[in-house]
Amino acid sequence: MEIQEILDAVRAFDGVLVVIPDEGSGMPELAWGDAFLYYAPDGVMPERTQPYATIVTKNYPDDMASRLDEPDRFRVNIHVGRDQVGMLTDAGAQPMTKDAFVPHPLYGDAGWVSVVNPGPVTSDRVIALLRDAHAAARARANRRVSES
C-alpha cells in the first residue's frame, strides 16, 4: 500500500482534514512532507486537538526505531486507545518490521499503534482503524461542541 492510497481512502471520510506541511505552511521543516489527519469539518486545523493519525516519512530526533531514513519507508500511526494496543500488535514484531502492527515507538502507552509500509497483512485493517479513529475524533469534537 502506498501513501497516496491511504490518503485517497481517508479523504472520503466526512469532515476529514489532511494537513501535509511544506515550505510555505509555517510549520517546522521537520514536519514537511508528513501527513496529519484531523476531524475538522470546517477545513481549519484545530488549535487544541492532536491529529488522530499521522503518516511520517522520516526519522524524528527521538524516534528512529522504525528506520524511516532508509529508502522507500514510511509509517502510519493511528490512535486506537490504550485498550486496543495490546490486541492489535504483533508481539514478535519490532518497530522497524514492515507490514506489522506495533505499539508506536514513543506513544504506544498513550494508545497509538504504528505500521511501517502497510502491505497485504495490514492494509485493510489500517483503513478500518483510520475510519474508527476518525469516528472517535468526530465524537470527541461533537461532545466538545455540545458542552460549550
From TrEMBL:
Q: Which InterPro entries match?
A: DUF6194 (IPR045676)
Q: Where is the DUF6194 domain?
A: 1-145
Please, which domain of life does this record's source organism belong to? Bacteria
According to UniProt, the name of this protein is DUF6194 family protein
